[in-house]
Predict the 3D structure of the following.
Amino acid sequence: MWRDTVLVAGKDLRIEARSRVALSQVVPFGIVALALFAFALGPDRAPMAKAAPGLFWVAVLFTTVLAVQRSVSVESGDGARDGLRLSGLDPAGQFLGKLLSVGAQLVALEVVLTVGVVLLYGARIEAWWMIVASCLLGTLGLAAAGVLYGALSAGLRVKETILPFLLLPVVTPVLLAGTRIWQAALAGGTPSYGSPWFHLLIAFDAVYLALGVVVYGPIQESA
Amino acid sequence: MTTTAAATSATTPTAGPFPPGLVQSPRMIWTTRIIGIAAAVTVALTVWLGLWVTPPDKVQGDLVRLVYIHPGVAWVALYLAFGLAAVSSLLYLWPRTRSLFWDRLAAAAVEVGVVFNVCTLISGSIWGRPTWGVWWAWDARLTLTAVLLILFLGYLTLRRVPAEPDVRAKRCAYAALFAAVDIPLVHFSVVWWKTLHQGATVLNANLSPSIHGSMAWTLLLGFVALTLVFVWMLLVRYRIGALEDYLGTGELEVALLERRSEGADGLAAAGAADVTAPDVTAPAPAATATAEVAR
């Protein structure tokens, strides 16, 4: 399973490294989103700094949709999905591989967005460890749920439009938890405030990781 | 739609049995009717008790009468309908109990549940405006209800994507499962996020209702009435779903059969003079006409 994970993740990341779609389209989309939020909230930096945690996570959520769609579409041509299914790779490994690839891209994007939030919105981060932990845990959950819903919608002709509708409400807990942890991190980082939210993120990750490992194979068979 | 297809299938006896089993059985139809009548009677009783018999509240005045409807609707929407949908979806996915019955039951439960969910939000809003001063507050239970509504609207959207019944059933069952496991997570997140909704009145921790007399009985009757309405709507919706599936798969077979029989008629009419030509050319316009009739 782990070997297959590495294989699939390597394949997806290699495609991204060569096609540069993530670098030239997905990441710039995140930056555009940051700029749009800034225009919407006016030129004063105070409201932007206050709203920075939420805006950061909304931008991450929207970009997750793009990253998942990209991850599905690289396998949509040339019967690649059937090929993967016939390859004998462990479905759980495929799930984890795609998750790793999407997750890695999201982490890279989050680094860029964090810098953007600090520079453009003037957010002052007091507790870096909370930022890093919430991003890693949140990304894991987003990628797991994203890859699952990506697989579910992969065979549909309406996949581009139905994926955000199905995925975004499901990841509400990640948005709430991530935002609250970020707020705590900006406010000076009181671990006691953040801890239930960390538990929630861990629970979300565990649920969708377990679900993905178990049902990714059957979904591929049926879609 | 039903009559045309029924007529078509009547002309082609090979199109398969019309009633899909359980759906068409007289006992089922009578059960549905009796539940429907019981629902109408209990709803009427609730309305009478709620609007005329029970006294207005000391604090809330006539506004309190919403309490006979709102919790009942919410109970159906949030627990009964979506619980049933989740359980049915799981039973569909479980290989030993896999049957389209569970799929249709889940679909019917979600659809009726969405209606009740919207009613919950509307009745809650009507109560919230004079009481809290706002139509909508980002309170935990309200938010959870709204998120549930969106999740299950997504399920219904996915259901509308055309597919074979088996494929669709599996896909939707997974979607319901993914949404269902999310609900506890959403619940905790919005509870920690914010809460100002009043606590449960009847089913509170020590199970002693905090309201009394005719009001309590009307409230309980409201629960019974709305549960009956739910069951009735569920049965009717299930029946429609089963007939839809039957028509969806039946139509194609009917059209194929008719086209074949017309091809054979054409052959017979043309006689031995030209055997191949009518088979190729004549049925083409006839087939489109058949398809329209079947539709």
Notes: Chain A touches chain B at residues 145, 148-149, 152, 156-158, 162, 165-166, 169-170, 172-173, 176-177, 180, 196-197, 200, 203-204, 207-208, 211, 215, 218-219, 222-223 (CB under 8 Å). The two ends of chain A are 22 Å apart (CA to CA).
